From TrEMBL:
The reaction(s) this protein catalyses: citrate + acetyl-CoA = (3S)-citryl-CoA + acetate; citrate = oxaloacetate + acetate
Localization per record: Cytoplasm
Protein name: Citrate lyase alpha chain
NCBIfam families named among the record's database cross-references: citF
Length: 515
């Protein structure tokens, strides 16, 4: 016979029904829903709020403990304040042995070094790092190798559980008291929160850090109130003026502009430059400049692009506002104009990193690209590309969306000068493989263009337009004739970095520089 018990309002209900889940009797309207106001008749109760007074209060509320994993996003690039701010408080609280999983690390995060040295941080998952931090890691600072992944690879890892975030600390330029947040309103607007959105969706606990509280509900919102555990208001979360410094800038260098012009000619004569085509330009100066050189030809041929993807810059916004680009899919806003546009333009769509480039979801946007333009530190005779380590072996870049877009696009164009100073960019063997040569189609340098032998159909069309075509071997020899053959670098056996391809497999390793 079915066992019955009285619930909190005196009704008899069963504890068990055959072929059904275990049943729990009703215990009261707010017993199992703690965020609901508990005294409906008391009008003096404050409105529901997730705001806590300090970062220390927020950290304590999440239950952060030694050995856990925390994450951050890099929407502010070189202007980020949040990562350093949070780690300083965590260190003061005595929490140690943390794994940090920021979407990327920049020059703004040099203070992370002291937290590694003190044992607060013992493991890192990220897309890249630069400056003194990269140098210290390259010299063997950490006992455990840093895991480097692409933006799409990070989204995959978060969704599959390969990376399990215990607490995400996310800087948001605009937030209401219940946790609805966006990146394009408030004094510290940074634009798209495409990387933060993945963390908010997958982390066990989510702490929002803001310097601007908006009226509830803060619409539109990128991060939803149902994803957020607590909120901390601070004086400032970042400096938006530093977003467009470093990689994301428009170049005035004549050599970069020459490369950009030749890159535009490659695209125009590739067969993909037709009405309704789609494209992405990377964050390098020459990549962004390429967009500007496409404009005149689009006007001349009276063609428009269906969409532009990835990090969105002023040059792309201008094309859209002139009617040359129909839609923009923005995972990261590169400058003030892009930030303005995403906040006001319904066809400027914020997307998260999974939508952008996760290779294992049901269809990421990179798969719809016709053309992508990407920069490189090195390219080798097998068309492998390095964007992570310099010619000196030090970590000084980021995987970013490089391998994601190279394989997803119909035409991947890699641009770099033949030499930088006294260093060759076209080499026999790159220091570190980030993007495998099988996904690379064309290399454009200031001395000439090389086409991957896998793409023979491009050779005849690009010959006709008068571009200086060479084999990759000929370009490598040109570079060697200019700068000579460098002394080989010396490394120890210690692995300081594991390079993960976007599907989760290990494509290369980085060894410690020998002192």
């Amino acid at each position: 016979m079915m066992k019955m018990v009285k619930n909190a309002i005196g009704r008899e209900v069963p504890l068990h029904v055959e072929n059904f889940r275990t049943l729990t009797p009703f215990a009261g309207a707010v017993v199992h829903t703690p965020l609901i106001k508990k005294d409906k008749g008391n009008r003096n109760l404050p409105k529901l709020s997730k705001i806590v007074p300090t970062l220390q209060d927020a950290i304590s509320q999440t239950g952060l403990q030694d050995g856990m994993t925390i994450s951050f996003h890099h929407g502010f690039r070189n202007g980020d304040y949040v990562l350093n701010m949070v780690l300083d408080v965590i260190a003061a609280m005595g929490i140690k042995n943390l794994t940090i999983a920021p979407s990327s690390l920049t020059d703004a995060h040099i203070p992370l070094i002291k937290h590694i040295q003190s044992g607060v941080v013992t493991k890192i998952y990220t897309s890249g790092m630069r400056g003194k931090l990269g140098e210290q890691i390259s010299q063997g600072m950490m006992d455990t190798p840093v895991l480097f992944h692409s933006h799409g690879g990070r989204a995959r890892a978060l969704e599959t559980g390969d990376i399990k975030i215990d607490v995400a600390f996310l800087g948001v330029p605009s937030c209401d008291i219940y946790g609805n947040a966006n990146g394009y309103t408030g004094p510290s607007a940074c634009g798209s929160l495409g990387y933060a959105m993945c963390d908010a969706q997958t982390a066990n606990k989510v702490v929002l850090i803001t310097d601007y509280l908006a009226e509830y509900p803060n619409i539109p919102f990128s991060i939803h109130q149902n994803q957020v555990d607590c909120i901390v208001k601070v004086e400032a979360i970042g400096d938006p003026s530093k977003i467009s410094t470093g990689a994301a800038r428009f170049t005035r260098n004549p050599r970069d502009l020459l490369i950009a012009q030749n890159t535009a000619r490659v695209i125009m004569n590739s067969g993909y430059f037709e009405d309704g085509f789609s494209f992405q330009t990377g964050s390098g100066g020459a990549s962004i400049a390429t967009t500007r050189f496409l404009r005149d030809e689009m006007l001349r041929r009276k063609i428009t692009a269906s969409f532009v993807l990835g990090g969105i810059s002023q040059a792309v916004v201008q094309l859209h506002e002139e009617g040359l680009v129909h839609r923009m899919l923005d995972v990261q806003s590169f400058d003030a104009e892009a930030i303005r546009s995403i906040g006001t333009n319904r066809y400027h769509q914020e997307i998260d990193a999974s939508y952008y480039a996760n290779p294992l979801n049901k269809g990421c946007a990179v798969n719809k690209l016709n053309v992508v333009v990407l920069s490189a530190l090195e390219v080798d005779l097998d068309f492998n590309v390095n964007v992570l380590t310099g010619s000196d072996g030090f970590i000084r870049g980021a995987s970013g969306g490089h391998s994601d877009t190279a394989i997803g696009s119909d035409l991947s164009v890699i641009i770099c000068p033949l030499v930088r100073g006294r260093i060759a960019s076209i080499v026999e063997r790159v220091q570190t493989v980030i993007t495998p040569g099988e996904s690379v189609d064309v290399i454009v340098t200031d001395y000439g263009v090389a086409i991957n032998p896998r793409r023979q159909e491009l050779v005849s069309s690009l010959k006709k337009c008068g571009l200086p075509l060479y084999s990759i071997e000929a370009l490598q020899q040109k570079a060697q004739n200019i700068v000579g053959v460098p002394q080989p670098l010396e490394f120890t056996d210690k692995i300081v970095g594991l390079v993960e391809y976007r599907d989760g497999t290990i494509i290369d390793v980085i060894h410690q520089i020998k002192a």
